[in-house]
């Protein structure tokens, strides 16, 4: 079992930045990819970005250039740097981890609020 703990959410003004962190523990040796989804009120959960162990990354097209995902594999940690935040970025951000055997684990979510 993999446990994911997120941190770094909060309130930021439009145009500001936030950095989310997600640390994995437990059976983290089986993880091959980590990333972030988000879910805004009344909307479906959507993929934000993924970072694979081999260094490859994927992003939602709409977020390329503003969001950057990175991994600290030795620490089983994934980060999401969010710049030039917009009100439409406001959502609960969920960390996830893909493990061998098709297992997906989720964090509890962290709220990002973009408001002046």
Summary, kept brief:
This protein has no helices and 11 strands.
Question: Can you describe this structure?
Answer:
- By secondary structure, the chain is an all-beta fold.
- It has no helices and 11 strands.
- The protein has strands spanning 2-7, 10-12, 18-26, 31-39, 46-52, 57-59, 67-72, 77-82, 91-99, 103-106, 110-114.
- The strands form 2 sheets. Strands 2, 4, 5, 6, 9, 10 and 11 form a 7-stranded mixed beta sheet that branches.
- The model has no long low-confidence stretch (mean pLDDT 94).
Key words describing this protein structure:
single chain; mainly beta; four-stranded antiparallel β-sheet; 0% helix; 116 residues; seven-stranded mixed β-sheet
Q: What distance lies between the first and last C-alpha atoms, to the nearest angstrom?
A: 40 Å
Q: Specify the biggest β-sheet.
A: 7 strands, mixed
Mean pLDDT: 94
Topology as a string of helices (H) and strands (E): EEEEEEEEEEE
